[in-house]
Amino acid sequence: MPQIGLVSAVNLRVQGNSAYLWSSRSSLGTDSQDGCSQRNSLCFGGSDSMSHRLKIRNPHSITRRLAKDFRPLKVVCIDYPRPELDNTVNYLEAAFLSSSFRSSPRPTKPLEIVIAGAGLGGLSTAKYLADAGHKPILLEARDVLGGKVAAWKDDDGDWYETGLHIFFGAYPNMQNLFGELGINDRLQWKEHSMIFAMPNKPGEFSRFDFPEALPAPLNGILAILKNNEMLTWPEKFKFAIGLLPAMLGGQSYVEAQDGISVKDWMRKQGVPDRVTDEVFIAMSKALNFINPDELSMQCILIALNRFLQEKHGSKMAFLDGNPPERLCMPIVEHIESKGGQVRLNSRIKKIELNEDGSVKCFILNDGSTIEGDAFVFATPVDIFKLLLPEDWKEIPYFQKLEKLVGVPVINVHIWFDRKLKNTSDNLLFSRSPLLSVYADMSVTCKEYYDPNKSMLELVFAPAEEWVSRSDSEIIDATMKELAKLFPDEISADQSKAKILKYHVVKTPRSVYKTVPGCEPCRPLQRSPVEGFYLAGDYTKQKYLASMEGAVLSGKFCAQAIVQDYELLVGRSQRKLAETSVV
């Protein structure tokens, strides 16, 4: 597969062994951050404690050897500089919201807010409440941080994750969060391309390359126009005509498309079915793990809106290691530095109510109780519905949640006995009926880097028919699909590349299923029950079911609590007075 820009495709042989080199584009030809000269070594660039070094005695001899001994292509991993995101409208809007917590008047009596769920929604809520001077108490049922970005280390010291997580340039609140924590260097930015497998040409890929020199939306338009392998010119023209109402109608038009599926919208706009088959099956599965006959068109239009209106909106980055340590722990450390608390292994058994229907406390599985001035549920919607108090079930705000249901998804990790060549230092769209997106994490992620063996991480979706099946069945089905993506290197019977080990992570209820008609059911963060709030990607915010949506929901939840400060203080004082009388 051809590589473009600084992601070179060469075979380097150092003392008889293939060397996979990883460097930062911004440090080429200069001294790296730890002071090593690029003339004498190539280093991992742009990160702190994750750095590793590969020494090369004589790079000139390598050049001479390459000229006479050129081998099959292999990927050299080179990260790209962080794109210029800080001056975009959405980034500045997100930065202003973040600053509002730091600049808000310091509370005379900081509130103690009990938050259930240490996923990104709960962590974000706690982080911004702490910034506003309050004391969050964050409770996590499991022994691991992150919720839907959780990960675990196996007995060999290798990590396996809940999902394959991509950080887009069009995630302004997430990008602000990285900056606020001082960990921008933990994102590994990749070449600005979208790469799709070609099912009718096993082992081949088609690219949408976004030129750096052009602004949005011209860079996206040119990327589409230059790709002649997936869509014909008549199909491109009909698709463009079909999109005109969305371009002209703006956000109000986008929101109005909640009630129609992607497939039905395309047909209504006269877009050929082949466009849906070639592009939007893969895109639908990547966005919500379901096919376009189920997905609401609003979801696709929101993504296209961000990708086409922001120059770096579709540019992707990988985290440089496992999410609990590299992303979640810095948030926890920030919360604790401000006087907040984060407690693992604190599963909530019951939401105990007062006589007036407000929350009295959370009762944990061990029988202990946690009281506070306000309460937040930042778990997935399905978990909250299981714990919804009987007295609340007739309230319309909570009744609407019944339509919001998490979608099943499976994340597959396979370690092979060799380095696969037909891959890329980027996210790849498989266009497989069983698989969504995948990446060779031994190439794309510094902590998972391995110069000799590949580790493929793959999203198995749609997964509804598979989530109850055995891991071995899922691996067998995955290998059959991989044989089409790597025909020269992988076979279903493992007669070529052999599996060293695998991990299968099943999430029976992941992000909410973004089907037509669910938008009116998404709740605001402030509930009608005084002192009770919700956070999570299913709550009302414009980024739908995503990491960005979870972070933004946490900010909105924290904002609502800060705005309700006087009300919550008065409520706590009344409760104290009533207790004193008794």
Textual characterization of the structure:
Homotetramer. Keywords: Carotenoid biosynthesis, Chloroplast, Chromoplast, Membrane, Oxidoreductase, Plastid. Belongs to the carotenoid/retinoid oxidoreductase family. A 7-stranded mixed sheet has the order 14-13-22-23-24-21-25. The protein has a 5-stranded parallel sheet with strand order 16-8-7-20-26, with helices on one face. Residues 1-74 have low confidence and may be disordered. Strand 1 and strand 2 (17-18) form a beta hairpin. It contains 16 helices and 26 strands. The protein is of the alpha/beta class and 582 residues long. Among the domains are: 101-144 and 320-403 and 513-578, 3-Layer(bba) Sandwich (FAD/NAD(P)-binding domain); 216-308, protoporphyrinogen ix oxidase, domain 3.
Briefly summarize what is shown.
The protein is of the alpha/beta class and 582 residues long.
Comma- or semicolon-separated keywords:
582 residues, alpha/beta, FAD/NAD(P)-binding domain, protoporphyrinogen ix oxidase, domain 3, 5-stranded parallel sheet, 16 helices
Element layout with pairings:
Elements: E1 13-14, E2 17-18, E3 22-24, E4 41-43, E5 53-55, H1 59-68, E6 77-79, H2 89-103, E7 112-116, H3 120-131, E8 135-139, E9 151-153, E10 159-161, E11 167-168, H4 172-181, E12 187-189, E13 193-197, E14 205-209, H5 218-226, H6 233-256, H7 262-268, H8 273-288, H9 297-309, E15 316-319, H10 323-337, E16 341-343, E17 348-353, E18 359-364, E19 369-370, E20 374-377, H11 381-387, H12 396-399, E21 409-416, E22 428-429, E23 435-440, H13 441-444, E24 455-460, H14 471-485, E25 499-507, E26 532-534, H15 547-563, H16 565-581
Helix pairs in contact: 2-4, 3-10, 3-15, 4-15, 6-9, 7-8
Catalytic activity: 2 a plastoquinone + 15-cis-phytoene = 9,9',15-tri-cis-zeta-carotene + 2 a plastoquinol
Main location: plastid
Enzyme class: oxidoreductase
